Amino acid sequence: GLEEGAKNQFSAFSNFITTINQKKEGIGNRDSPTQVVIPTIKNGRDLPPLCLDVRQKQRMSVDTLPQELKAPFPPEPSLPIRTKTVKDFQDDMEKSKASGDWKAVHNFYSTTFDSFLEINAAFKKDTSSPFNTIEDSGIDAKFVNVVYDALLNTPQDVQKSVLKGIINGLLQEWTGPRTKDDLRAYCILLQNPQFSNTSTYVIYAHLLRQIAALTEADHHFLVHWSKKISQKRFKQVVDRLLQFISLRLFPAKPEEFPPMVKCTWWIPSATKVLALFNAANSLNSPPIISYTDFYNSTLDHIDLMEEYHNWQCYGNSHRFSFCQYPFIISIAAKKVIIQRDSEQQMISIARQSLVDKVSRRQKPDMNMLFLNVKVRRAHLVSDSLDELARKKADLKKKLKVTFVGEAGLDMGGLTKEWFLLLIRQIFHPDYGMFTYHKDSQCHWFSSFKCDNYSEFRLVGALMGLAVYNSITLDIRFPPCCYKKLLSPPIVPCDHNTLVGICGVTLDDLFHIMPELAHGLSELLSYEGNVEEDFYSTFQVFQEEFGVIKSYNLKPNGDKIPVTNRNRKEYVQLYVDFLLNKSIYKQFAAFYYGFHSVCASYALLLLRPEEVEILVCGSPELDMSALRRSTQYEGYQKTDLTIRYFWDVVLGFSLDLQKKLLHFATGSDRVPVGGMADLNFKISKSETSTNWLPVAHTCFNQLCLPPYKNKKELKQKLIIGISNAEGFGLE
User: SMART domains of this UniProt entry (predicted)?
Assistant: First the structure.
């Protein structure tokens, strides 16, 4: 990177570059977030009191963009003729390294980056072609990569010349809309590795500001062109933007940057540009990088609730909030927002209950501050259903569970046991509510018709209660379930509005019924005559309670044959029937149950994958982290038995590690906060060493006898965790 000596040079640019600010005055205030809307919902049900305009606000997202935006193309100015090739440049670099004479390389860099026209002259694949489509940026990516890879290995005066040239380009007087050559230059400059150095941040900030201020049509081109950047370079640009935001929020050396009051636009500009890359990533299938690579963990340390309340009160107005760009907020930070939001709702409802009691001259008691659920073990589902139905107004209060006829206070263990037992009973195949698919190892809604879908509402409420009470559930739903759960993310007031309906694809079906999805995929790729060889119509059949029933996928579907021409429509309608229409009433009840507890604008911040992690935890195991956070009772961490235990567990396969976690906690997944949030405890069991280990899943506790050697411990532990179905209740 740039050495210390470069900083004086760049600080000298500060006065010079502030003129860029003046050139922005004519453009107007471009610092407000780009507004891309979600479906408008007039009012939300069961939501906490919010500012008047918040119900009209719409979520900021640039995950999707229109397929093509029509915009007039400004005339492209003629480009200088530059004939240097990759090989020519590499030859110049080798000669300069050998001789110490960098004149040719210096001339190349200073000329190439002196203006946007010169950047295009050097890096455009064909200067005579306009490249005015989203499909091809016309950038010679290989040449760009070679030039940037070499840049950081050149003398400081060469690197400074590049930055001077970029300043010249940014100071250019703009008249009228940007040309596609300008957009190409922006796309190339964003990949400059020099912007990893904080001494270049003033220049970098102005580059980001200009890109953020472009029109929606220009952003559309940049998004599609960014998709073509290699994964490595794409990730580098994203990391650079995240680092810029982090260091502006928490600078290691505050004196390096202008005062925050003079550059309040830095972070909004960088976040908007990051949103373009997030949009490009979302448009790719599969995504270029993981959505978690856009998380900025630095935001975990700011006042998130202030950000959230600003977003609630001001929506997508001129006031910037990170909540307008939820892709940048980590799941851990989103969990904090949801929990604090739920706590505030719980306190508000509990306070109202107290006021009501006092106003009626009744004696208040502590129980009114909680959602008290009393159930009999023998009638677990029916009692739970009755309790939650009777206490709808209390669902946002802190949950406390009592098993009738059993002594004991609920300090968290009884609540977790209630969830575990209830989920296990409801999801049992014999119960008939959900079908377990062995191939995909997940549950899906039974399509059987019935008169009452209240039990599906109970399951939804259970999931909502689990999120609000920080309980991880051992539920195996496919990804599209959580996509449907956020369709829409806020419950509409009009009960005639369809809920839980989302766009589904063959990929979604693969996650549930892989064999059927594979068959439909083969139908789409079949090269013969589909109508004659398959002899199918737009009618499908399902077995319900031993009776085969037929359903038309479209009007008169039984009379419409499936052909080579209409097979795509057939597959799409079939998938939509299986995942949306055939289970609509079941899923709608489930949806309303979940949102009866989780009615919060915080849900607008979540991706479907993040809802799954909040409900079920993360599948990523780190047993070393678990070892560091484990508590002991009757043992010391230096005891021989404990050392044997961790030697064995760390040597387990991933499958056995998951079995151990499931055995000890009731789930093989990890809470959002990581292994430390499990509060895992190993207690000494005073029983014979002939006994197997015992687990108290309600307390995440493993009772371990003091086995004499590692071999015996490993043998007993594997037997225990591999045969752990059912509960041994005293």
Answer: HECTc (SM00119)
